[in-house]
Amino acid sequence: QVQLVQSGSELKKPGASVKVSCKASGYTFSGYSMIWVRQAPGQGLEWMGWINTNTGKPTYAQGFTGRFVFSVDTAVSTAYLQISSLKADDTAIYYCARDRLVWLGESSRSNWLDPWGQGTLVTVSS
Amino acid sequence: QSVLTQPPSASGTPGQRVTISCSGSSSNIGNNAVNWYQQLPGTAPKLLIYTNNQRPSGVPGRFSGSKSGTSASLAISGLQSEDEADYYCATWDDSLDGQVFGGGTKLTVL
Question: Chain B closest CA to A44's CA: distance in Å?
Answer without folding.
Answer: 6
